[in-house]
């Protein structure tokens, strides 16, 4: 069974968003060994300088790195990444599970994104959309896509 | 004030998804005249034939067409559509509000998508992602993007 870690900088406070994310996490957890890690974002003032943002991203990067499972294939989500269809995401998972450790870490950044360091150390940069989504919604979108990808690989009926 | 109509074939039953969609509808409703129209999808068996799917899409198209506001700029969501960034979506809204009626209709299809007729009659085909998302999630994604687009146009702080 493949292992999937979803590392998110930012927590979900709203009960209804928690339930929505939880629903896909439950389903995905039935198809792989799933771990979701929620990290605290660094607090910034309302109009942070570029330097303050970079410092915050650097601190967040250290916390993220400490959580990535050893040997995992690291996928960071960023708007400049490669766009894949649901089927291509499934193929990417399958190919890397066959050639690698079968362990994946997906990383979603805070509202200012991810540091260059995290992007550079990633095995794959994935973009779900050209549009910018809030991290909570991106987390649900990613979890749904991973559930869909595993459903495609398992030939289940979820994906028509 | 611009008018936005979101026409969705499919209803939301889950309370938590309703709350999530409702949150963005409330916010978006503060920035434009918003109407959300939920239509019933045609019920199909588990393994419908291509012909059955086409018939269902045709019936759904008739219901959709009856709901599109007269003179609205029609945007249908489909995976083969044009991909826009959040900023480009805002520009598209602004440009068409200046040149047109200021009324927009966004159409999200059922789980089998939209009929060719609806796509062909649309002024714009929009793709939010190369990935396939369930219509309930696509609805939240679209509403969030419209809220973001209006925030960009209004120079609010929502969109950094």
Radius of gyration based on Cα positions of chain A: 15 Å
What kind of sheet is the major sheet of chain A? 5 strands, parallel
- How many beta-strand segments of chain A? 5
Report how far the terminal alpha carbons of chain A are from each other: 23 Å
| Range of helix content of chain A | 40-55%
The residue ranges of chain A in which pLDDT falls below 50 over 5 or more consecutive positions are: none
Q: Largest inter-chain interface?
A: A-B, 33 and 33 residues
Shape of chain A: globular
As an assembly, this protein is: homodimer
The SSE order of chain A reads EHEHEHEHEH
Please name the fourth-level CATH homologous superfamily of chain A. SPOUT methyltransferase, trefoil knot domain
Mean pLDDT of chain A: 94
Decide which structural class fits the backbone of chain A: alpha/beta
Number of helices of chain A: 5
Please tell me the CATH architecture of chain A by its name: 3-Layer(aba) Sandwich
The CATH topology of chain A is given as Alpha/beta knot
What proportion strand of chain A?
15-25%
Spatial sequence of strands, sheet with the most strands of chain A: 2-1-4-3-5
Number of separate domains of chain A: 1
State the CATH class of chain A.
Alpha Beta
